[in-house]
C-alpha cells in the first residue's frame, strides 16, 4: 500500500512504520524532556497526539527506549515491574540540537490528529442523523444524501488548505451542483 505522502494526510508519513528509528528516538527524547514516562505512557501520548493515526507497538517503543538508555540519552528507574524513563543532560542537548525537526514532527502528528478527529466527527454526525442546526425531518429519508454530504465534507477537509485557483475550482463545482439541485432536473430556462 502506498504511503500518505501528498495523500490524505500529507507530510510524508508511510503506512506501517511511521518514523525512521532515529526520528522516533528523538521524538521520545522530546516527550521525556516534557516529563518522565513509562513506555506504555509514551505509546498513549503518541496515539493521542496523532488522533489514533500512529500507535507504536511495544516492539517499537521498548527497543528505542533501551537504545536511549544504552547511549546515555535516557536513564531508567525501576518502579516494581515497571520502568520509568527520564531524559539525561546529554539527552537534553540532543533535543536542543534537533529542536526544529522534533517540533516539525510533533506538529505534523498533531495536524494529523486534528484531521482524524474531524473525520471522526463527520462520520459520527452522519451516523446519528442530521447535523446540528439541521431540521431533523430534513434528512429523514436521505441515507444516500447523507452519505454524499459526508463524502463532500471529507473531500473538502482533506484538500484544505487550498490555493486561490484550487478554491475557485472547488467553488465552481459546488455552484454547479447547487444549480442542478435547484433546477430539480429541469433544463435551464432561457431568459
TrEMBL record:
It holds the Pfam family PadR. Coiled coil: none annotated. SUPFAM superfamilies: Winged helix' DNA-binding domain. Residues 28-96 form the Transcription regulator PadR N-terminal domain. PANTHER family: TRANSCRIPTIONAL REGULATOR YQJI. This is PadR family transcriptional regulator. It comes from Rhizobium vallis.
